[in-house]
């Protein structure tokens, strides 16, 4: 049986995933602050493969997936991978976000705060977590995952490695 997550992966290259997110379409640019207060924009990562991971501090599956994604980021960042973890927690939970990232010794510069839900409204308007978007070097949306089940990290890594193997445009 296929989950909603697998159905999104199997969607055709032009399928509409959300109101403004279509596979094969350019990813909308955005700008958010990271945990250090620096402004980070999707445009900052031109020519890189970008993986957006929408998560929340109260989401258990997000935390499991995050361990894998952060490991992929550490392993593959020199090959052109950027993983951006976008918290959908509201502004009141920001201290908990910072504490969680610090406690787990994650790279805080790739953790972004979407306090006003601006970016989640573009990529993930249903506010599903975990929710992930893979963007290729040309800034096109190539895959979307909704939810996380143990074992799926293998498929996620394969999709990332496939994009990294493609030449820089």
Blueprint (SSEs and pairs):
Blueprint: H1 4-10, E1 16-18, E2 21-22, E3 31-34, E4 39-41, E5 49-55, H2 60-76, E6 81-87, H3 94-103, E7 111-113, H4 118-123, E8 131-135, E9 141-146, H5 153-165
Parallel strand pairs: 5-6, 6-7
Antiparallel strand pairs: 1-2, 3-4, 3-7, 5-8, 8-9
Mean pLDDT: 87
* Quaternary structure annotation: single chain
Assign the CATH class: Alpha Beta
Largest sheet: 7 strands, mixed
Question: What is the fourth-level CATH superfamily?
Answer: Glutaredoxin
> SS-based structural class?
alpha+beta
Rg on CA atoms, Å: 15 Å
Number of helices: 5
How far is the first residue's CA from the last residue's CA?
Answer: 37 Å
Total beta strands: 9
Q: What proportion of the residues is helical, as a percent range? A: 25-40%
Query: How do the helices and strands follow one another from N- to C-terminus?
Result: HEEEEEHEHEHEEH
- Return the CATH topology: Glutaredoxin
Low-confidence spans: 1-19
Beta-sheet strand percentage? 15-25%
How many domains? The number is 1
Q: Judging from the principal axes of the Cα atoms, what is the shape?
A: globular
Record the strand order, biggest sheet: 4-3-7-6-5-8-9
CATH architecture descriptor? 3-Layer(aba) Sandwich
């Amino acid at each position: 049986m296929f989950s909603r997550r697998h159905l999104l992966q199997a969607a055709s290259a032009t399928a509409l995933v959300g109101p403004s997110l279509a596979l094969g379409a350019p990813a909308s640019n955005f700008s958010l602050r990271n945990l250090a207060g620096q402004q980070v924009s999707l445009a900052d990562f031109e020519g890189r493969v970008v993986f957006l991971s929408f998560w929340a501090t109260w989401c258990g599956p997000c935390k499991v997936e995050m361990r894998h994604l952060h490991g992929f980021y550490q392993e593959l960042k020199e090959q052109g991978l950027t993983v951006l973890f976008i918290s959908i927690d509201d502004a009141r939970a920001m201290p908990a976000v910072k504490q969680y990232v610090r406690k787990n010794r994650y790279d805080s510069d790739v953790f972004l705060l979407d306090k006003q839900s601006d970016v989640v409204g573009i990529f993930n308007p249903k506010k599903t977590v975990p929710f992930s978007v893979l963007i290729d070097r040309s800034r096109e949306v190539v895959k979307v995952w909704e939810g996380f089940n143990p074992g799926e990290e293998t498929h996620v890594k394969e999709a990332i490695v496939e994009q990294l193997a493609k030449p820089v445009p």
